[in-house]
Amino acid sequence: MASASSLAASLNPGTPPDTGSRAELSEIDASARWPVIVFLLSALAWLLIGTVFAIISSIKLHTPEFLGGYEWLTFGRARTAHLNAVVYGWSTNIAFAVAFWLMARLSRARLRHAGLLVIAACFWNLGVTLGVIGILAGDSTSIEWLEMPPYATPLLFVAYALVGVWAVITFRFRRTEHIYVSQWYLLAALFWFPWLYSIAQIMLIFEPARGTVQALVNWWFAHNVLGLWFTPIGLAAAYYFIPKVLGKPIHSYYLSVLGFWSLAIFYNWAGVHHLIGGPVPAWVISAGVAASLMMVIPVVVTGINHHLTMVGSFGALRYSPTLRFVVFGAVNYTLVSLTGSAMAIRSVNEITHFTHFTVGHAHQGMYAFFTMVMFGSVYYILPRILLKEWPSASLIRTHFWAVAIGVTLYWVDLEIGGWIQGLQMNNPGIPFIEVVRNTMPYLFVRSLAGILMTIGHVAFAVNIVWMLGARRPAGATAPTLFHNPPAVPAR
Amino acid sequence: MEWIFYTLAFLIATAISGTAVYALYWSSQHGQLRDFERGATSIFDDQEPVGRMTDHFPVPRRKS
Q1: Angstrom distance (rounded) from CA A25 to CA A148
Q2: A188 is a domain residue
Q3: Quick check: A396 contacting B, CB < 8 Å?
Q4: Which residue of B has its CA nearest to A291?
């Protein structure tokens, strides 16, 4: 852990950043151990808490009397608690854990000032806990994706400031000449997220903009959290783990660089497509629609690149847990992004807006893409920082199949149900209550999918806790732990 | 008054794209956009070389 004087030295622009040599991989992994474990365990706890709220909200939609006697578990609160627990609790904590390890590895430098990150983890989780309790108590701000009450958010600011400082220091002390594409994605995410979050807090909560500008800022923020925070972290992991696991460089590095820069320049404008049909100047919406369609470029480029890297190596999916999860996520990135661009077209949006289609789409993005890539990353990182193997291959397989089938069922079901719902809502001949009744079978299937995903999460949690408690085998060395790897065909 | 907020929102969005454009300029000035072949292999080294898979399902430890 770093002392105060070395933190001051790291921040001092006079300190030459290019001293010392490239660190060994094992040394880097060991230096990242504590911050990664703290953020990972926090993320895991929030994943389980978020799942409970998800199941409650899902059941309430088709069986409204379920837990109907508790005002703190009414749909509006339980669903919001779910969103905040999984977005700020699970997803952001795990994004931090993966980003720290990746940044240290890609910079080929030991992770400095681990203590700073552990303090940040305490602030972040205290903030999220306070926020979720506030939501359940009825203090939600009612602004989508920013529902946490104002007394919780300053803690998140403090946490993020510490992470931001750390990211700048790590980048400055990198030992590599070339900035790999994953590093660009991570830097962009770590740099833009606080910007988005602070502007949105100021313009919506502390000094609210008036009128429709509120909605505009709200959706600029909410969509950019996906596109400029979770997407870059997910893609950074995919661009590192797919080639790294296969032992094969990315098919076209040129395309990966093109994909990054086009995402960086277009994505920021796409969010306002959520307001199609709303009382916002038409040119603002048109700019959002245009940017959403421009996103086809980075998406197709990334999809082609990942696919061509995998061609000839699909057999490896049988042997590597990381690759399975990450490739599943990468395929869903392409699908969900193309669906998203299509949903920004006005005539499509007329049908999908205000329906379950959007809910299915959101889960395909945040779960089938982002969360699956994060699961895969954890399967790679944890053995290396703990110097232990995963205790159970069966639990990994259970985890994969339960969540892969669960989330696919989830989004396919809600997109079909939502599309039908949209068509029926646009038909003035069908009474509204009938449209609601027609969604019921889809909502039941959604709960079923949720139960499958819960089984997967429990398998994941059991495997992690088991691994933490297991004894480290004598003579274990990083980075390659596997004492008896099965023969893997070259093709 | 509404237009002040629209202008502000527009400027903030432009500034974010501005940082992306600046970073692109920086990377071109610092040679990051040259020699893509080498860039792609920068994550491999002697310890984890090209051609070696680095992840497998755990297999039961043989008693020795």
Answers
A1: 39
A2: no
A3: yes
A4: B17
Burial of A471 (0-12, 13-18, 19+ CB in 10 A): exposed
User: Whose CA is closest to A225, among A49, A357, A344, A83?
Assistant: A83
Q: What is the mean pLDDT of residues A343-360?
A: 95
Q: Is A393 on the interface with B (CB under 8 A)?
A: yes
Residue A488 CA, chain-centre distance (Å), reads 31
Provide the residue ranges of all domains of chain B, joining segments of one domain with +: 1-27
Is residue A143 within 8 Å of A204, Cβ to Cβ? yes
Whether residue A264 sits in one domain with residue A127: no
Residue A203 lies in a domain: no
- What b-and-e string marks burial along A239-250, b requiring 16 or more CB atoms within 10 Å of the CB? bbbbbbbbbbbb
Residues in chain B, overall count: 64
Which one, of A277, A428, A280, A409, lies nearest residue A343 by Cα? A277
pTM here is 0.92
A239 interface with B at CB cutoff 8 Å: no
Whether B11 contacts chain A with CB within 8 A: no
Contact B55 A323 (CB under 8 A): yes
Contact between A131 and A64 under an 8 Å Cβ cutoff? The reply is: no
List the domain range (segments joined by +) for residue A91: 25-177
Is A342 part of a structural domain of the chain? yes
The answer to whether the beta carbons of residues A306 and A242 sit under 8 Å apart is: yes
Q: Which residue of A has its CA nearest to B48?
A: A247
Q: Is B9 within 8 Å of A216 when comparing Cβ atoms?
A: yes
Rounded distance between C-alpha atoms, residue A146 and residue A200, angstroms: 8
Domain count, chain A: 2
Q: For the domain that residue A33 is a member of, what is the CATH number?
A: 1.20.120
Q: How far is A411 from chain B (nearest CA, A)?
A: 28
Are A171 and A271 part of one and the same domain? no
Copy the structure tokens of residue A163: 């992470």
Q: Which of A344, A332, A183, A200 is nearest to A267 (CA)?
A: A344
The answer as to whether A265 is a domain residue is yes
* Contacts with A, B 17-46, CB within 8 Å: 17, 19-21, 23-24, 27, 32-33, 36-45
Asked if A163 and A288 sit in the same domain, the reply is no
Q: What pLDDT score does A491 carry?
A: 43
Which comes out higher in pLDDT, residue B13 or A346?
A346
A 276-335: CB under 8 A from B: 281, 284, 316, 319-323
Complex-level ipTM beyond the 0.90 threshold: no
One domain for residues A245 and A163: no
The confidence band for B14, taking pLDDT boundaries of 50, 70 and 90, is confident
The domain spanning residue A375 has which CATH number?
A: 1.20.210.10
